[in-house]
Known about the structure:
- With 90 residues, this protein is α+β, with helices and mostly antiparallel strands.
- It has one domain: SH3 type barrels, CATH 2.30.30.
- It is built from 1 helix and 5 strands, in the order E-E-E-E-E-H.
- It has one helix at 60-72; strands at residues 5-13, 21-26, 29-34, 46-50, 53-58.
- Strands 3-2-1-4-5 form a 5-stranded antiparallel beta sheet, covered by helices on one side.
- A hairpin with a 2-residue loop joins strand 4 (46-50) and strand 5 (53-58).
Amino acid sequence: MCLAVPGKIVSLLPAEAPFATALVEFDGVRREVNVACVPEARPGQYVMVHAGIAISRVDADEAARVLETLRELGLEEGELSPSPLGRGSG
């Protein structure tokens, strides 16, 4: 099953459009994520990430609610960290 997982943008990484990337933290794990779909996103903001691509921005409260719901569903910590840039089974 594939889910979008909220993560906090730590920093934007230098890249040429359409390959904008950012370092995003997921519950303590940092990954490079494509942020081309959310060009307005900035460090400190939260994004929903699916298959290594940030697909939307969310506020901190919504990010916390989604993470709590995922934990209640019994997903393990490692499952909350999406595959980097779409690599993996996601």
